[in-house]
Write a structure and sequence with these properties.
Layout lengths: L3 E4 L4 H12 L5 E4 L7 H11 L12 H5 L2 H4 L5 H10 L8 E4 L2 E4 L3 H4 L3
Parallel strand pairs: 1-2
Antiparallel strand pairs: 1-3, 3-4
């Protein structure tokens, strides 16, 4: 499987993560989270395979998250509704995402990405 790096190009953490991948000669397919937002099917599979709670997939510091008052709304939503919401707007998804055969990485933490 080819590594998939999903980013928002204006995000400073995404830029740092991308630079780290390039400096470490790790090949990847680059996807813009706003123009190629992950689908419901992709997110369903990735969430399941990540071993992470679904709430970890939300960009809780984002404007959209706060505008929609999701902190309170997510509590009553089903997992299916949460995934559909994430797929509806890439800005709701925590970034960057790195999808690999060694795991699924949400956000950039160099010490964790060194697994690659």
């Amino acid at each position: 499987m080819k590594n998939i790096f999903i980013e928002y190009p204006k995000c400073s953490t995404c830029k740092k993560a991308k630079r780290w991948l390039e400096e470490n000669h790790i090949e990847f397919i680059d996807r813009n989270i706003t123009t190629e937002t992950p689908t419901v099917q992709e997110l369903t599979e990735w969430v399941k395979n990540s071993g992470q709670e679904l709430k970890k997939w939300f960009n809780t510091s984002g404007l959209k998250y706060k505008e929609l008052n999701l902190k309170d709304k997510l509590v009553t939503m089903s997992d299916k509704e949460k995934i559909e919401l994430l797929a509806s707007d890439g800005m709701l998804i925590k970034r960057p995402l790195l999808i690999t055969d060694k795991g699924i990485f949400i956000g950039f933490k160099e010490e964790i990405w060194k697994v690659l």
